[in-house]
Amino acid sequence: MAATPAHAPYDGSSKPFTIGLKPLAIGDWIEVDENLFAHLAEKHRLYAEMPEKVFVEEPDTRAAQQEVLDMLTAHLPERFPRTHAVAGDGVTAVRDLPPTPPLALDAPLVAASLLVQEDLILMRRGGDGWRLAAGSLCFPSSWMLTEKFGKTLHTIHIPVPGFGPGSRPDELIARMFDGLQGQAMERFNWSIQVGDALYHPLSNIQRDDRATTRPSRFADEGEINASAFIRVERQTLRKLPVSRDVLFTIRIHLDPLAVLARHPDKARLAASFAAQLTALDTAQLDYKGLTADRDRLVNWLQAAAAA
């Protein structure tokens, strides 16, 4: 992990529970950092141990999946020549990656996902809206791919406070998906978790139970300092030129909350983070699983800001 966070949307630049989409330069579409090989090794492990939980596809999405693989094959060696190269068969390969056994999954989207740290989701337009038609999701942030597979955006967003069917954000997102052309878009989301697990699923039943029981995850400020991690999702959207499906990428950055105490701008970041937590209402806190711990986290952040 980096000494300081790569992204800090909790600084007030990306408000929680807002759409927050911004234009993105194509050259910055994919991110590569020092965790590349560790993240790819974890993807290999998940594909080997639980492929049915991390990959789904409708049978007629293979051409669109190949489109994604071709886009990455063209982009990665040009943008990241130190880590990616064109192999003899024309497929982009990651330099110096230890050999791994062949995977049972031969889908192009799986091959594409094993080149990058991002998870890759294909959304397809149907008569009832945009639905999740295929996806490689090795690093879920408190949701499960199998529960969202085949569902429309309207249904997927039901649990998110303020984003349910018929809401203004729901309608805006659908129009944005329809209006995408060649440009790329970017947004950020954040949460706080215990430990540094990349694979962090949560079922709908587990979410409902968490919102009802509101368990505490941090007994005291010492435990926050030792085990609280900031989980930042960097999300991008691009419409594929041939299939016209939308590719949704999710890149996870994990940093110990304690890293803020070493940040050169710690006072501003910690104070802003505390203010955003304070501003969350009960439904939003329940959704993020922070209801029981919000005040304790705010106290920790305010102390870090003042130190």
From TrEMBL:
Give the matching Pfam families.
Answer: HODM_asu-like
Q: Which domain of life is it from?
A: Bacteria
The name this protein goes by in its record: DUF3445 domain-containing protein
The lineage is:
Bacteria, Pseudomonadati, Pseudomonadota, Alphaproteobacteria, Hyphomicrobiales
